[in-house]
Amino acid sequence: MKQPKICPVIFPRIRRRAFLTMVGAMVSTVASGRLWSPVAHAYEVTLSPTTPRLGDTILVVISSVSTAGTAPVVSVNGTDYPSFLVSGNRYRALIPTSPLDTPGQLTLNVSGSDISRRLTVNLAGRSFTT
C-alpha cells in the first residue's frame, strides 16, 4: 500500500493555524474572565471574650483577605457599629452589652464591600447587685 504524499509546506501550516486558533481562543477566554471563578474575599473574625456575659463589651477583630476597600460594619439587632483600622487589613469594632439585654443568642453581621459574614454568640446572663 502506498502512503499518500503530504506536501511538507501545507501540513505544518495547517498545524500552525490550528495551534494559533487554539491559543487565540484560550487568550480570549482568560481575558473575558470565564476561566477564572470569582474569589469571595472572606473575613476572618475573632471575638473576645468568646463567651460574653451581660454587661461585657465584645471586641470584634476583623481580618480581610483584600487590602483595599472600605472598613466593615458590624450590625447587632439592627444597630450598626463601625470598625476602625488597626493595621494593614485588620479592623476592630466594640459591641456593648447592657444588663437590660436579654440573655441568649446574639447575632453579629459583619459586612463590607467584599462580602458579609454572620456569627452567632451565646450571651450569658449575670446577676448584678443593687
Summarize, please:
The protein has 130 residues and is of the alpha+beta class. The chain contains 1 helix and 8 strands; from the N terminus they run αββββββββ.
Strands of the largest sheet, in order across it? 1-2-6-5
Per DSSP, the total helix count is: 1
SS content category: alpha+beta
Strand element count: 8
Proportion in helices = 10-25%
Please, could you describe this protein's structure?
With 130 residues, the protein is α+β, with helices and mostly antiparallel strands. Helices cover 18% and strands 38% of the residues. The protein is built from 1 helix and 8 strands. A 4-stranded antiparallel β-sheet has the order 1-2-6-5, with no helix packed on it. A hairpin with an 8-residue loop joins strand 1 and strand 2. The model is unreliable at 29-39 (pLDDT under 50).
Keyword list:
8 strands, 18% helix, alpha+beta, single chain, 130 residues
Topology:
Layout lengths: L9 H23 L10 E6 L8 E8 L8 E4 L2 E4 L1 E4 L2 E7 L7 E8 L4 E8 L7
Antiparallel strand pairs: 1-2, 2-6, 3-4, 3-7, 5-6, 7-8
